[in-house]
Specification:
alpha/beta; 2 domains; four-stranded antiparallel beta sheet; 6 helices
Length: 186
Amino acid sequence: MSSKTLVIYEYKALFKILNEIKEKLNFEILELNNKDLNNFQSKRLTNFLIVSSKHYENLSNCLVIDNIPIRINKLIEYINISFLKNNFANQSELRVGKYNVDLNSRQIKLANKRLNLTERETELILFINSKKIVNIKDLQKNVWGYSNNLETHTVETHIYRLRKKMHETFDDDNFIKYEKNGYSIN
């Protein structure tokens, strides 16, 4: 069974065509109508794509195929490219505490607020998040690539600036905490 699911929404003719050649496709095919939409949304599929003939406001992750006729190989190409884009987008989201970090856009998000991060800030958050507590020497070595005998001010300055940005955007003073053994993410 395939890990990808193609959902054909309110597009019976397309479902019939793809269902006839489903053995040659690398995804599962489901037909969905408006009546079954709520039940489908509760299934929480992770790798799915909805195809419809028009744009619907209540559908996310939807590919609209309205320029027909279309060659079947072109249609399959559009579908596969959309699956790849969705997979790329899904892999870029990481949960850090109560926040979502988008690795592609280097943004940290909470509700409708977003904060742009530098590459170093993103690496810093990811490394601290991967451990319970991280000391300055580990950060110097693993995030900056420094040897252990360098000054600690670079790490402390970056953490200070990141804390300040988190406070200004999210009013969060406890995102990165310092304990006696090092830093952790709340």
